[in-house]
Amino acid sequence: MSVSSPPIPADAPIFLITHEFYPMRGGIATFTEEIAKATAGLGYEVEVWAQSAPAQSEKVWPFRLRRLPLKGSHDLWCQFRLAWQLIRARRQLRHAIVYLPEPGPMMTMMLLQFFQAFRPRRLVLTFHGSEILKFSESGLRRWLAGRLIRHASRISTLTHYTQELLLESFPGAAHKIFLTPGALRTDFAVVPPKPARPKDRIVVLTVGRLHPRKGQLLTLRALQALAPEVRARLEYWIVGRPGKGDYGELIRAAAAAADFPVKLLGNVPDDELAEIYERSDIFAMTSVHHRNSIEGFGLVYLEAAAHGLPVVAHDVGGVSEAVHHGVTGLLVPPDRPAQLAAAFERLIHDENLRHRMGGAGREWAGRNCWKQSAEALFGGARYES
Questions:
Q1: pTM (two decimals)
Q2: Of 104, 146, 199, 310, which is the most buried if we count CB atoms within 10 A?
Q3: Each residue of 126-160: pLDDT tens digit?
Q4: Do 253 and 119 share a domain, yes or no?
């Protein structure tokens, strides 16, 4: 698809408004942080408005950062508090570019869009996947989101999959939609391959919050279905913060019942996570569609590939745009547990295949650039997709 839209004024300040920003972790938080840095690097005046955070956790940023007095949830109270902050700054924002990179502030703007006094000079939106389903599930939300999309100057998605999903529900985005692919974090240290050394066990690693959509239980069950002599060579490591509900307890119970070591490592800092990647042999994140939550891309697949790990994943959502099947990893249809177990068995038995896919993954992970995505959002050039 080839699209064009009016150029973003280079002299207009950009206000990036988000509920997901450092020290919060996850794909959307990483995307928001990296786009802000890349946009500032292109010479734009950038100010990020983000959720509250402990002062001791703050970093030095190449843009202005304003912490808002809100926790960054999607509940009504949080939406009201963000709306009040935006209304107070309406004269400032009226002459600026307002960029909403995730659904939290979009929900607030859906209500404010009816006030003529609050109309930014340009409105830019990014969709990741799950919010499209949420906005489409009721007639009122669909109408509000469609109206917001009509007001937007530019709209982006990270993958072709999400782009098609958006256009199915909101065809009005067709003439203003761009791809802004995810990339490796700019502070991500790509280390050269380490010399192969004999290991007693093959380590399978998952990095992601403990949530049914991330599929940790499915991976664990697939590993448990392998032959006893294969399981005797395995360890399964799970990195991720607990989510809502009892999914974490289900994982802990399944881990305790497994006849091979399963380590629940919790929420690991980035500097420690690099060492965990280096000690692992296979990366697995077997995401599935869960209610109205989908895997739109998955930046963590790129991080695993950059560490030279072959990937096992379900072929759902935009995962196939993060994992090159047969080259950087193996994609399996969801709800095919036997095929999933077979994919693990193939990689466990074939060391040469692991190394070949790991080497291809290092090159694959570096193919996208945050500055190119920022240029697509705020530059004046046409963007081919």
A1: 0.91
A2: 310
A3: 999 999 999 999 999 999 999 999 999 999 999 99
A4: no
